Amino acid sequence: MAEQKKGQDVDVNQLLKVRREKLQDLQERGKDPFQITKYDVTHHSMEIKDNFDTLEGQTVTIAGRMMFKRVMGKASFCNVQDLQGSIQSYVARDNIGEESYADFKKYDVGDILGITGEVFKTKTGEISIHASEVTLLSKSLQVLPEKFHGLTDTDTRYRQRYVDLIMNPEVKDTFIKRSKIISSIRRYLDGQGFMEVETPMLVSNAGGAAARPFETHFNALNEDLKLRISLELYLKRLIVGGMERVYEIGRVFRNEGLDTRHNPEFTLMELYQAYTDYHGMMDLTENLYRHVAKEVTGSEILTYGEHTMDLSKPFARITMVDAVKQYANVDFNEIHSTEEAKKVADEHHIEYEERHEKGDILNLFFEEYVEEHLIQPTFIMDHPVEISPLTKKKPENPDYVERFEFFMNGWEMANAYSELNDPIDQRERFEAQEKAFAAGDDEANHTDEDFLNALSIGMPPTGGIGFGIDRMVMMMTNSPAIRDVLLFPTMKSLDK
To answer: Which residues does UniProt call coiled coil (predicted)?
Structure first.
């Protein structure tokens, strides 16, 4: 095996040497492709195929990467791949000239070509371009993966996404669909009167979520700063300022682990709407998901792995207490103290920390017994106050808050509140979070005095929600891992 690998390396090195020699020959003959600065393209591959009836016999100009070449004496075929797909070209010496044809025969798979010629259909019925001119636009000095095996190693695919996009058309389709999903979200929210805004990524206090932040140092001010873990606190400041409907789609950063659903930097969308509550956010979520699914996938039925999810029906709505009662057969309405909750947790082998209170333990039961069952679109409502430091309490039951998490396929897809706008209550919640941090919870929120000042000026009743865009894209493209929907996911350095 080692000898075979060594032989492969020698072969590749020889191929790379030959490619550089070809480039040098072109340069010496005044045909350096890297000197070309512009090339006028008139059509793309799929556009030509879709409009063959009107384009047959017409002259077109395309450009793309040559993925296949077959030389047959005085005539050859090649396939050029562009943004939309690939198209065949028939290249004959008598049409492009002897010198150009001699050059063409030396071009390599991976080279980027421009081709001008007439649209026609071959005897086998394949729509093609009869080349009258072939231009080398860029010389590929590296060897692409072998065609029939492609690029299959996932680690290499993520590290060299540029090669992945070339060799695996379905990957490009995923990222085109990702772009369409984000555009569809924007169109829907803009149509609902929301305004898109941008807020700081470098912050002194990374609040709005339970997560460990990345820390950095700003030399100019000699201050330590953090990368934001959420968009929440600045967007709420804008609600205070009178911007009644705002949203932001942006990167957030959480200093946590990597797995199929987590990347330390990911795309979050948060929106806030004055004069509504978490029920208004449920309605918005249903309508938004249906709109995006229908516009991007053409259906309100989504298939992910072995599961099929129906967005056309009203989404289920159930409280966290009732969900735990249904799936764990434990009724937290009958549990009145933290001691009782810990006793029940012990009986069900639920691990907890000493600092955990009744509400924390309810959430642990939910994670253990309920989440995996939430395949169809479901709103889990009314979380315990202990795990919701920025949310309004339920007036009739202050141990719980007006919050929901939206689940599909057993995943949390969104998190929403009736936002806490009482500055006195908010300060008490921050103080409780500071105590939790002191007790060992390094994901607890810290007191944000400027945010408290904003609330003191007055924030109207407000509904807010955060969507994980990457998980939404995973769901709508049937992608197994978050890295499959991030163009350049976080990878461990090869130097380590």
So the answer is: none
